[in-house]
Amino acid sequence: MKRLAVRFIERIPLLLGCLLVSILFASCGSQEEPLTLDLKSSPTLATDTPRGDGGIRFAVAPVISPEKGFASYRLFTKYLGEHLKTPVELVQRKTYLEVNEMLRNGAVQFALVCTGAFIVGDAEFGLDIVSVPRYLGKTEYYSLIIVGKDSPIRDITDLEGKRIALSDPLSNSGYFYPMFLIRGMGKDPNRFFSRMLFTYSHDNSMRAVLEGIADVAAVDSLIFDYEIARDERLGSALRVIHRSPPFGINPIVASRRTPRSLVENVRRILLGMGRDAEGRRILELLRIEDFVEPPDGMYEATKKMILQVRAVEGSR
Amino acid sequence: MLKLRLRLRTKIVLGFILLVAIQGVLLTIVVNQLITFELKEMVRSKGMHLSKSLLTRSKDLLLTGDIVKLYVLLQEEQRNTPEIRYAFILDHEARLIAHTFREGLPTVLLSVHLPGGGSRSRLLNVGNELLYDLQAVEEWGTLRLGLSLSEIEATALRIRSYVMLATFASILAVFALALTISRPVERLTTFVAKAAAEGTYGVDPEVLGTLETSKLCEAFGDVMGQLRAKVKELTVSEKTIRHQKEYIESLHDSLGLGIVVLSAKGDIEFANRIAGDQLEIASGDVAKALFDLEPLEGAYPLPDLIKGQEPFQGLWRARNGHVYEIGGMPILNPDGSESLLLRLQDVSEKVALREKLERAQKMAYLGGLSASVAHGINNPLGVILMRSEMLLADAKREGLPEKYIRGLSKIKGHTARAGQIIQRLLLFSRYGMGKIPTQRQVFNLNDVVAETLGLLEERLLAHNVQVGLALEEKLPEIQGDRDAVQQVLFNLVDNAIDAMEDGGCMSVTTRRVPTDQSDLVEVSVADTGCGMAEEVKARAFESFFTTKDISRGTGLGLSISYGIVREHGGEIAIESRPGHGTTVTVRLPVGGL
User: Fold this and answer.
1) Interatomic CA distance for residues A201 and A174, integer angstroms
2) How far is B33 from B156, CA to CA, in rounded Å?
3) Angstrom distance (rounded) from CA B311 to CA B327
4) B124 pairs with which residues across the strands?
5) Do the Cβ atoms of A23 and B92 come within 8 Å?
6) A247, B405, B510, B551 — which has fewest CB within 10 A?
7) Widest distance between CA atoms in chain A
8) Is the CB of A16 less than 8 angstroms away from the CB of B124?
9) CA distance B407 to A12
10) Distance between CA atoms of B562 and B543, rounded to whole angstroms?
């Protein structure tokens, strides 16, 4: 034992040496070597130049949030570009009004717009319907008044004094219809609701109810169905207390500044999407069966309702 | 290798300072490296979180094309976080959308990360500082953030300075501590050195410093005193043991016996000087010498007896011819093991004497037998010889047929040969057993040589032997039995002729050999015959020993010659090698008997 201790003491310098080397290796080994860059002499870039006139811009109104819009319509615009043999840029804006403005001045050639925005835009500066999507065999949808699952609100008579989430001032299902409904009850929506919150997308309106920011929301039935199918939690957390009569579905429109030949081309491509595999795959992702010509007079009732609401609001 | 001779105090002080300095350097390196590493990791982690958060906040602005708000967001973030050196956003097609550079984005930054990668970081050296370039990637776009590490560098420098300051303070403290420790130790060392050199074990008050040192000195003094007493005791014991050992060894030597003690395995445990002397070897080889001894007179090989560990006694012969009487006796050691005690005594002379006596007795018996046989046969042989000569003469005279004459001639010849044998037996009975010569004459050896060669001339010619003579002219005369000496020469020449069956050369030399006491006369007979082997040469003088056919040799010639020469006070020697001939030399004193 003693001999072992002496041997250990004799080897202390050796052990210290080993420890020193190990520590140095350990401390040096993990150092990252920096990449040397000369920023001063590097060429600079202000910003990327926007696309030239040859490009086609396709706007998607914020029916859903920009993130979901991007995820859903990126492949759609890519498909269009491939068939048109020219790049198609996906453009999103926060409000329907901004999209309508772009359609008005030709900043975008095509857009998927809300029924409300289409009716207002068509009335103000003229829009051409390229085609309409068909969903579950129909080209119609509804405005749904939804509340939280545990909410004491049973029907629309209980809405008074509540906070309502609205999607956009030009939205049919998310604005015009609930305004029409309240006014039909002889109430002024601005007084009827304790607060009107614009969320600028139907999924955001659903989230506002879910998070307790709003007590009630008016949403597009197609978006509601899509979101519930995507997230079952939403279905069990939200409850529909009112369903509107059917409205003409959100159309794809062309600016009046878009060349007619291009409009026809796009219409042909959209109507034929269901005939090729890639087109079918994209339609499936968008939960659309196919694109069809709009049936005659499909927007008449809606147009009447919206213009009525706007007339009342304009007179105030 | 250079070895510095330093004072103990210097060694202690330097050692302490060196240890602390090494510790300080190590600590500085490790702390610096670890802190730098940890802080960098922290910045990197924070930066990654920040870049992801910023990208998320940019999402709607980027997707809805709100560039102005995007610029505002990036600039606000840079204002709120001073470490941010730059930030920029690319859309999903890697187009630059917004950035914080006043004069445009340096394009080298675009190639910092490999395209297609996810969120990651990269350390950059942009000339005046180190940056972490952090990249957050989502499907819709990419955000890049440059975070400065200057603050980390400054922190690491501060910590390094603190550690080095602490090390310096530790060195000062250790210096003082080392001095405090080394002074008493040096004092103690001086005391011990002095005590060891002068043999004084008392405590010198001058070296007593601290309480601990004085206690150590006292303890050391006690130990040294006890050590000295023990050394004295040991010295006395060693002397006693040495005297006892010498006494026992002298006892052994006085016995005149070789004493060897062997372990059960056959290893030598003890061998006294006489054993080594007797075996004519160094004591270390005693065992080998013992095991090489050849057993005599029915004794067993020694290795077998040693293994047996039983008492024994017998005779053994060494390679040098010495004969030893060895007795073995098992002894019990104090530890219970058994050893074998061997007693050795060189009995070579005693054995030789005994053998000589036995040989003399044998020869006396043989001489008596030879004399009685010779006398008994000699007379009838004389009659046969005489009657055969007479019959032969008659036969020749009367003209009997040749076959009778030839038969009678053979009878006469063989009878004469038998007569010669009888004469030799008579000579043997006279000289072979050491009898004193009866006749005394003064004669010259050269004459005897000439006469003998004359007698054997016919045989020499018949065997085609050339004879060379070298006889010293003034050879002194000698006194003795002339016939006997002639018989010696006759035997030597006769043997030489027999050795050269196909002819050869024989030389006979006589000369005077002066010596200190009395001169000698030497005669040597050399032949070019077949020579003889060593074992034949060793037995050449034995009676009845012969290498010739039974019809030609009796084995008595050299034996008789030996007897005659020895009885004349002379000596006879043989020098021979197989194939190189033989030389027999006889030396006789001038004065004779």
Assistant:
1) 9
2) 9
3) 7
4) A35, B131
5) no
6) B551
7) 108
8) no
9) 117
10) 10
Q: Which contiguous run of DSSP H or E holds residue B478?
A: strand B478-480
Q: Could you report the per-residue pLDDT of B285-301, keeping only the tens digit for each? A: 777 777 778 888 777 88
If you write DSSP's letter for every residue of A238-307 in order, what string do you get? EEEEEEPPPEEPPPEEEETTS-HHHHHHHHHHHHTGGGSHHHHHHHHHTT--EEEPPPTTTTHHHHHHHH
Question: Does residue B551 surpass a pLDDT of 70?
Answer: no
For residue B26, list chain A residues with Cβ-Cβ distance below 8 A: 20, 23
B124–A67 C-beta distance less than 8 A = no
H runs (alpha helix) in A139-192 = 177-184, 189-192
Kindly report the average pLDDT of chain A as a whole number: 87
Query: Which among A12, A15, A22, A44 is the top mutation candidate for probing chain B, defined by the most B β-carbons within 10 Å of its own β-carbon?
Result: A44
pLDDT in tens, A33-50: 888 888 888 888 777 655
| Contact with chain B for residue A116, Cβ under 8 A | no
pLDDT at residue B2 is higher than 50: no
- The stretches of chain A forming alpha helices (DSSP H) are 2-10, 12-29, 66-84, 96-105, 115-124, 177-184, 189-192, 202-210, 221-230, 232-237, 260-271, 277-285, 300-315
Half-sphere exposure of B553 (CA within 13 A, CB side): 19
Find the residue in A nearest to B108 (Cα).
A42
Decide: B543 and B556 in contact? Cβ < 8 Å.
yes
Does the pLDDT value for residue B144 go beyond 90? yes
Give yes or no for a contact between B67 and B97, defined as CB atoms under 8 angstroms apart: yes
Smallest CA–CA distance, residue B222 to chain A, in Å, is: 24
> Which own/partner contact pairs does A26-33 have at CB distance under 8 Å and 24+ positions apart?
A27/B29, A27/B30, A27/B32, A27/B33, A27/B34, A27/B37, A28/B33, A30/B37, A31/B33, A31/B37, A32/B40, A32/B123, A33/B123
Residue A12 contacts B, CB cutoff 8 Å:
no
Residue of A nearest to B31 (CA): A27
Of A27, A33, A70, the CB nearest to B63: A70
- CATH 3.40.190.10 domain position(s) in chain A: 56-139+249-296, 143-244
ipTM score of complex: 0.75
Task: Kindly identify which residue of chain A lies nearest to residue B106, measuring between CA atoms.
Answer: A44
- The two structure tokens encoding residue A9: 């003491």
Residue B169 CA to residue B20 CA, distance in Å, equals 10
Q: Tell me: the pLDDT tens digits for A137-162?
A: 889 999 999 999 999 999 998 999 99
Which pTM does this prediction carry? Answer: 0.50
Whether A66 and B96 lie within 8 Å, measured CB to CB: no
Fold assignment, A56-139+249-296: D-Maltodextrin-Binding Protein; domain 2 (3.40.190)
pLDDT at B194 (0 to 100): 73
Tokens of B307: 């293994």
- How confident is the prediction for chain B on average, in pLDDT? 82
CATH superfamily, with its number, for domain A143-244:
Periplasmic binding protein-like II (3.40.190.10)
Tell whether B105 lies on the interface with A, counting CB pairs under 8 A.
Answer: yes
Q: What percent of chain B has pLDDT over 70?
A: 90
* B196 vs A: CB within 8 A: no
- The Cβ of residue B290 has, within 10 Å, a number of other Cβ atoms equal to 26
B130-137 contact pairs (CB < 8 A, 24+): B130/A34, B131/B85, B132/B40, B132/B43, B132/B44, B132/B47, B133/B109, B134/B44, B134/B47, B134/B48, B134/B50, B134/B51, B135/B51, B136/B48, B136/B51, B136/B52, B136/B54, B136/B55, B137/B55
Which residues between 15 and 34 in chain B have a beta carbon less than 8 angstroms from any beta carbon of chain A? Answer: 22, 26, 29-30, 32-34
Token pair recorded at residue B99: 């950035």
Q: Does B95 touch chain A (CB under 8 A)?
A: yes
Alpha-carbon A190 to chain mean position:
27
At residue A176, φ and ψ (nearest 5 deg) are -60, -45
